[in-house]
Design a protein that fits this description.
This protein folds into 3 domains: 10-275, no CATH class; 283-392, no CATH class; 401-458, Arc Repressor Mutant, subunit A, CATH 1.10.10.410. The chain is 40% helix and 17% strand. The protein is built from 15 helices and 14 strands. It has helices spanning 61-73, 157-174, 206-225, 271-275, 283-294, 298-305, 308-317, 323-341, 352-363, 369-382, 386-392, 401-414, 416-423, 428-440, 447-458; strands at residues 10-19, 77-78, 85-89, 99-103, 107-112, 115-124, 128-129, 136-137, 144-150, 185-192, 198-203, 233-238, 243-249, 259-260. The strands form 3 sheets. A 9-stranded mixed beta sheet has the order 2-5-6-9-1-10-11-12-13. A 3-stranded antiparallel beta sheet has the order 4-3-14, with no helix packed on it. It has a two-stranded antiparallel ribbon with strand order 7-8. A hairpin with a 5-residue loop joins strand 10 (185-192) and strand 11. The longest helix has 20 residues, at 206-225. The radius of gyration is 29 Å and the shape is elongated.
């Protein structure tokens, strides 16, 4: 039997850029809501458009505080010696001054779930350059970013996906980042064993990172099989075709000609400033609190805190119903519907008010659980009121014995084999017969009444 060829080992590191949810840009007072503004180049001034002679304002203290908070959450050592804000030079249309301001590391030598965090920086975002039209929008130029540089500790696309999900969830718990879709951007560095490092630029989603890495690994493996050589280069990722394409030969640090910005004094983070920055509740702390306060199973608490939006939904719903039932529905039914659609909770129309209505209708025995699940499947997309749906479409629970008795008689007469199995001691046959009644009643029959009627009629 021919031995399968072993795949080369892969090393993957990330440079993740996330915008900080600050009202002002990093070195001027321009607003930062570029993602809400349709008209280009209105959130701008001489500073963030790099006009000659324009001097940067003092650094945005809220952004600096946010970067320190994030570094502390990532278990970094906070650098309290002089940290310069440097100019990183490169010529590109989205960078009108010809350089990007980026700080020396604020935090170093951190770790998250076994993945090393080399550095945490604070830097300004460039503008947005449209490759098709050649137009540039500087509304984003100068928005504060936190840059997180990992060690090349990830070995597969799955490792990267898991890490990014955990990291972004942790950052959401800070309340300090912009959470609009597509604002996170990651540069992925990939190298196969004994091969050069290839960088994939500006991937803007966890799914995109997963697909880009899968493609790039196979591209490099196939190139090697054909006798080709992997060059150190920068590549772009095309979301539509799901392939990477060459952009330029990879620059080194020296190519950027880093120099301290002469207009900005070096940062010295006082011990009192660092220690005065309180940390938010982390997912692990929230998990403990959910278990203690709401008495829910650990497995549900673990699922809930993996996505801040799910945990928030649970805490909105729990005081209005049985917390264990709320946790069960969110972790089972809600997640099942979201996973089927391939979306996150915030991309759906579901909210706490709607889910509370569903669970109250079930609790008050106005609808069956089966009906509740069908309604949930619908309202996740529509955002309709469950109460309105039940009233308009007469989906209420049917508990009247005379009405159900006729259906039970029909099911018994139509399924003699199941009746015989039940009479011979096969108790599972009762569940089958109950299922048939439910099917005829479109899930609206009161399960307790149906079971009692079946048992009475079957003796």
């Amino acid at each position: 039997m021919q031995k399968l060829e072993e795949r080369p080992k892969v090393k993957i590191g990330l440079e993740i850029h996330v915008p900080i949810n600050s009202r002002q840009k990093l070195f001027c007072d321009c607003p930062t809501n570029y993602y809400e503004v349709e008209e280009p180049n209105i959130n701008t001034c001489p500073v963030c458009t790099g006009m000659p002679g324009a001097k940067p304002f003092p650094i945005n203290e809220y952004a600096l505080e946010s970067a320190v908070m994030i570094a502390k959450l990532l278990n970094c050592k906070i650098v309290n010696v002089k940290a310069f804000v440097k100019r990183k030079h490169y010529n590109y249309p989205d960078l009108p001054s010809g350089y990007q301001r980026t700080s020396d590391p604020i935090g170093t030598d951190g770790e998250l779930s076994g993945i090393g965090i080399w550095e945490v920086h604070l830097e300004e975002d460039p503008g947005r350059y449209d490759l098709v039209t050649g137009r540039v929008d500087y509304n984003r130029s100068g928005v504060p970013l936190v840059e997180i540089v990992t060690a090349p500790d990830m070995k597969s696309p799955e490792d990267v996906r898991n890490f990014l999900k955990e990291l972004m969830n942790l950052l959401r718990y800070t309340g300090r980042i912009i959470e609009v879709g597509g604002v996170m951007r990651a540069d992925v560095n990939i190298s196969l064993e004994s091969g050069a490092r290839v960088e994939i630029k500006n991937i803007n989603s966890v799914k995109g990172a997963y697909k880009a890495i899968k493609y790039e690994i196979m591209r490099q493996i196939n190139l090697r099989k054909r006798g080709g050589v992997i060059r150190q280069e920068t590549r772009g990722y095309n979301e539509k075709s799901m392939i990477t394409t060459a952009m330029r030969i990879k620059e080194t640090t020296d190519d950027y000609r880093y120099i301290p910005d002469p207009d900005i004094p070096p940062l010295v983070l006082e011990k009192s400033f660092i220690e005065g920055i309180g940390l938010p509740e982390t997912p692990q702390n929230r998990k403990k609190r959910l278990i203690e306060r709401y008495k829910i199973p650990e497995k549900y608490a673990q699922i809930l805190v993996r996505e801040k939006e799910l945990a928030d939904l649970f805490e909105d719903v729990a005081p209005n119903t049985d917390p264990k039932i709320a946790a069960d529905w969110i972790c089972r039914e809600v997640l099942r519907q979201l996973n089927y659609r391939g979306i996150d909770l915030k991309e759906s129309k579901l909210n706490s008010k709607i889910l509370i209505e569903v669970l109250k209708l079930i609790r008050d025995k106005k609808i069956t659980e089966t009906t509740g699940k069908k309604i949930l499947e619908r309202i996740i997309d529509s955002g309709e009121s469950p109460i309105d749906i039940v009233e308009k479409e007469t989906l209420g629970r049917i508990s009247k014995e005379d009405e159900l008795s006729m259906i039970v008689d029909d099911v018994i007469s139509e399924n003699p084999e199941a009746v015989q199995d039940y009479e011979s001691g096969k108790k599972r046959a009762l569940n089958f017969l109950m299922g048939q009644v439910m099917r005829k009643m479109n899930g609206r029959a009161d399960a307790e009444v149906v079971i009692r009627l079946l048992m009475e009629k079957l003796g």
